[in-house]
UniProtKB/TrEMBL annotation:
Superkingdom of source: Bacteria
Origin organism lineage: Bacteria, Pseudomonadati, Acidobacteriota, Terriglobia, Terriglobales
Domain Enoyl reductase (ER): 10-332
Taxonomic source organism: Terriglobus albidus
Designated name of the protein: NAD(P)-dependent alcohol dehydrogenase
Gene3D superfamilies on file: Medium-chain alcohol dehydrogenases, catalytic domain, NAD(P)-binding Rossmann-like Domain
GO molecular function: oxidoreductase activity
Length: 336
């Protein structure tokens, strides 16, 4: 079968290779892959920042949708013909997280979905929502589930809240859609006026260009009559986290979901104490959360926002697009 394997750190080492079709073992299923979607995490893997001890070669990409075509011994959760999606945290079934959710992931310690076929333990899979195309379904494991976990599961998203989402990447756009569906007020930040206008078309009430207004937290306070926002999807970290603390209301929640500005932050502690702010790191979600989210998606019929769909042969171009940034998700179609 054809697969895109990382043979060393650096995008120049992502190569299309021929490898045997894997056979499902105990409690595993064989999936004919239909589509995958890219995340910022995939860039970090390629650059050696996600797992410096990565063992090569390893097939790339975590977010995968496909059809079950063979079932291994003891596997009972799915049938041949089922359309399934990978869960990013493959061993997080339910309950409290452990510390290794980011370890047991596709494209990292497990061969990923950027291939014609994938073998995966049945416990790491959920059924795809019936109303979504393969390309749309592939966007859910990181983008949608992270936003759901942060805003809905932990944040109790409601119509009386104001939510600030940073940027217009996959998680932030899903966060915007979920918040808009709940009737919440949404503020979006971006460096692009064009992307901010597109965000407004999706339901954002207010937009802040952080290039023109680098002290964007002050604008967020102004927009909320100095009250502050109820929830923030913090994708940048670095200096941005301190600004989020300034922009949040007393008792508000900041979900740290990304590290665009770096792996460390220096934050003022007194405002955290004074405002009694909750700051929580989010790594996607458990399989139980994924299944709960999918049930709600079936009701709401939210359509994921896809920037561009690339062919399997053009996977490198998809990665280059990821490096430039996207509005919503970048998808690679493996086969129809």
């Amino acid at each position: 079968m054809k697969a895109w394997a990382l043979e060393g750190f650096g995008l120049e080492n992502l190569k299309m290779v021929d490898i045997p079709i894997p056979k499902p073992g105990t409690h595993e299923v064989l999936i004919r892959v239909s589509a995958v979607s890219l995340n910022y995490r995939d860039k970090l893997v390629v650059e050696g920042l996600y797992n410096p001890e990565l063992r090569f070669p390893v097939t790339q990409v975590a977010d995968t949708v496909g059809e079950v075509i063979e079932i291994g011994t003891g596997a009972s959760r799915f049938q041949v013909g089922d359309r399934v999606i990978s869960n990013y945290a493959t061993r997080w079934i339910d309950g409290r997280p452990a510390v290794d959710e980011v370890v047991h992931t596709l494209g990292n310690t497990i061969n990923g979905g950027l291939a014609e076929y994938l073998v995966l333990n049945e416990d790491a899979l959920v059924l795809a929502p019936t109303y979504l195309t393969n390309e749309e379904a592939s966007t859910l494991p990181v983008g949608a589930l992270t936003a759901w976990h942060a805003l809905v599961k932990n944040g109790g998203l409601s119509s009386d809240q104001t939510v600030l989402v940073q940027g217009t990447g996959g998680v932030s756009i899903f966060g915007l859609q979920l918040a808009s569906l709940a009737g919440a007020r949404v503020i979006v930040t971006s460096s692009s006026d064009e992307k901010l206008e597109r965000a407004k078309d999706l339901g954002a009430h207010d937009a802040i260009n952080y290039v023109r207004k680098p002290e964007w937290h002050k604008e967020a306070l102004r927009l909320t009559s100095e009250r502050g926002v109820d929830q923030i999807l913090e994708v940048a970290a670095g200096k941005s986290l301190g600004q989020s603390i300034e922009a949040i209301r007393p008792g508000g929640r900041i979900a740290v979901i990304g590290i665009l500005e770096g792996f460390t932050s220096e934050i003022p502690i007194f405002p955290v104490l004074q405002k009694q702010v909750s700051i929580q790191g989010i790594v996607t979600g458990s399989r139980r959360m994924f299944e709960e989210m999918n049930a709600e998606l079936e009701k709401s019929q939210i359509r994921p926002v896809i920037d561009t769909v690339y062919s399997f042969d053009d996977a490198l171009e998809a990665y280059k697009h990821l490096y430039r940034g996207a509005f919503g998700k970048i998808v690679i179609r493996i086969q129809q």
